[in-house]
Every structure is written in structure tokens, then in C-alpha cells.
Amino acid sequence: MLDALDAKQPAFWYTPHLVPRLCALAAALRDDGEAARKRLAVSRRYAEGAADPSLRTEEARLRRDIEALIDNGRVSKRSDRETVASV
Fold first, then answer.
1. Other CB atoms within 10 Å distance of the CB of residue 12
2. Hey, is 23 helix, strand or coil?
């Protein structure tokens, strides 16, 4: 269901980081770590462009939570990589 979100809908124009993050969560829950990390990278680019510093901070935390889900699941056990949540 999360994958069905349409980022082009007017409701998402002011939160462009949201849909990619939710799609990353959906991919992580499907154990598709590669797709999840790609969507997290997109979400990070949008969030880092936000004027509100608290949004950047909170989005980084949420991305770290999704990466923890990926790393603790069956998807990946690698710890030698840089995370897309890093700020």
C-alpha cells in the first residue's frame, strides 16, 4: 500500500521527502534493502533542502530507524558502509 503513494499529488508538494521515505519503509518491510536504500537517498536529498532545521534532524532520525530495520532484518548484515541517514 505504501508503494502506491503518488508523489505528484498536490498533498505531497510541500513534503517531497515523505513519499520516498515511506516507499523506503515499504521496501525495508519487504526485505528489499537495495530499493530501500535508494529511496532513503532520495528522501535525504529532499529533506536536506528543507528550510526548517528541525525537519532535517527528524528526517535523519527516521532514516536511521529504517536503516536499522534493514540492517537487523534478513536484508543486510554489513556494517562497513556509510549510511544514507548520515548528516
1. 15
2. helix
Give the pLDDT confidence of 3-35 residue by residue, as tens digits.
566 767 777 677 889 999 999 999 999 999 999
- Spell out the long-range contacts of 11-17 with Cβ–Cβ below 8 A and sequence spacing 24 or more: 16/46, 17/43, 17/44, 17/46, 17/47, 17/50, 17/55, 17/59
The DSSP H or E segment spanning 87 is none
DSSP letter for 51, please. S
pTM of the model: 0.75
* Burial tier of 36 (Cβ tally within 10 Å: 0-12, 13-18, 19+): buried
Degrees to nearest 5, angle at CA 54 with 46 and 36: 40
